[in-house]
Amino acid sequence: MDSLLLLSVLLGLYFAFNIAANDIGNSIGTAVGSGALSMRKALLLGAFFAFLGALFFGGNIIRTIGEGIIPPDTFNVITGFAVILTAAIWITITLLHGIPISGSDAMVSAVIGVGLVSVGWTGMNLNTITYIILSWISSPIIGFFSGFLTYHIIKVGVIRRVKSVSVRDRLEKLFSYFQLFSSSFSAFNVGALDFGVAMGVLFTLSGGSSDFLKIVGALGLVTGIIFLGDRVTETIGRRITELVPTRGFSAQAAASVVVFLFVNYGMPISPTQTLVGSVIGVGLAHGTSTLKFDVIKDIGYTWILTIPACLILGAVTYSLLKVLSGLL
User: Fold this and answer.
1) Alpha carbon of 226 to those of 4, 86, 219: distances in Å?
2) Which pLDDT tens digit goes with each residue over 265-279?
3) Could you say which DSSP state residue 98 is in?
4) What is the DSSP letter of 69?
5) Residues 6+ apart with CB under 8 A from 89
6) Looking at the DSSP assignment, which residues form a beta bridge with residue 241?
7) What sections of 206-244 are H helices per DSSP?
8) Are 69 and 115 in contact (CB under 8 A)?
9) Are 251 and 279 in contact (CB under 8 A)?
10) Which parts of the chain span the membrane according to its record (predicted)?
11) Distances (CA, A) of 39 to 45, 48, 227, 259
12) How confident is the model at residue 313 (pLDDT cuts 50, 70, 90)?
């Protein structure tokens, strides 16, 4: 069992590495896409604040993943390993296809899939599952309206009042500095969310508290951001919609506030889904011609596939591990 626990830790770090690389685009993609930051500077900024978020703000997500769905007293090493292995397999499959996914959707669905086989519906906390599903549905919708409203206010209250081209250029330059703050805030939220999602099961297996897991998990996030974070950042920053600093700040600030509120309540939402909703809202407030619907369709297709795939894969993985453990 000790070797299985070690494998669980390694897979958890692998998962943290990859979802951080996937999700950091939510924090810095708009800043890169609008030209406010170079890719390298944006990745370093994102890694720093994600590290802080992981250390100081991930506790509520950890409790939801590790204790809120399956009772912690029924969470043994085989259960935890099955959950983490399922999420790791699925994120590997999607990474090979180069399409962003929601690590939160994958991990929560894996926990539910394993729970269905290990403790059954009646053994799981159905209230928590309901709240999570509602947060998944509502967060991109709230992000959409928040992004639309934020940019509309800036456009009506500020941009339309500026007639001079040179003054408008200086205005965009000013908002590029504002994006440093919104991107930092967003990276802090992403660090807390991804850390809790990736390490929640491991914290439960370790007894609920581990300084070693906290430091190693946070470093896993940072490593993924620095080495692989540029891929999805390109998708969020440039491919979904054309952004300038005023629009980039609007999308980022609106989505960051939404994610912060959900993370504070322990809801493992997808920052990608929230930001894409916000970016779409900003794009529609500016004009639908700026949107690139083919990218949105590809991302949406992957999200819809993730949940049932991880439910089934989690159930199958746990069943196979139970059979194998009985033979060994």
Assistant:
1) 29, 25, 11
2) 999 998 878 888 888
3) T
4) S
5) 313, 317
6) 291
7) 211-228, 230-234
8) yes
9) yes
10) 43-62, 74-100, 106-124, 131-154, 174-205, 212-229, 299-321
11) 10, 14, 12, 23
12) very high
How far apart are the C-alpha atoms of 325 and 314, rounded to whole Å? Answer: 16
pLDDT tens for 117-144 read: 999 999 999 999 999 999 999 999 999 9
What length does the chain have?
Answer: 328
DSSP-derived 3-state class of residue 291: strand
**The Cα angle at residue 231 between residues 140 and 40, in degrees rounded to 5:** 110
The reported pLDDT for the residue numbered 296 is 66
Amino acid of residue 307? I
Virtual torsion, Cα 273, 275, 242, 238, nearest 10 deg = -70
What distance in Å separates the CA atoms of residue 185 and residue 227, rounded to the nearest whole number? Answer: 21
Domain ranges of the chain: 2-327
Residue 68 CA neighbour count, 13 Å, CB half: 22
Report CA Rg, the chain: 20
70-74, 101-105, 250-254: the lowest-pLDDT one: 101-105
Average pLDDT, rounded, for the chain: 86
The two tokens of residue 218 are: 């946070």
pLDDT of residue 297: 67
Please answer whether residues 33 and 245 qualify as being in contact, where contact means their C-beta atoms are separated by less than 8 angstroms. no
| Among 58, 54, 55, 275, residue whose Cα is nearest residue 183 | 275
Helix, strand, or coil (residue 264) = helix
Cα distances from 305 to residues 13, 90, 195, 319, in angstroms, run 24, 10, 23, 22
At residue 45, the pLDDT reads 93
Query: Do the beta carbons of residue 271 and residue 23 sit within 8 Å?
Result: yes
Instruction: Match 């993943």 to its residue by tokens.
Output: 65
Sign of CA dihedral 226, 23, 182, 159: positive
Which of residues 326 and 74 earns the better pLDDT score? Answer: 74
The Cα 15–Cα 195 span in angstroms is 10
- DSSP class of residue 206? T
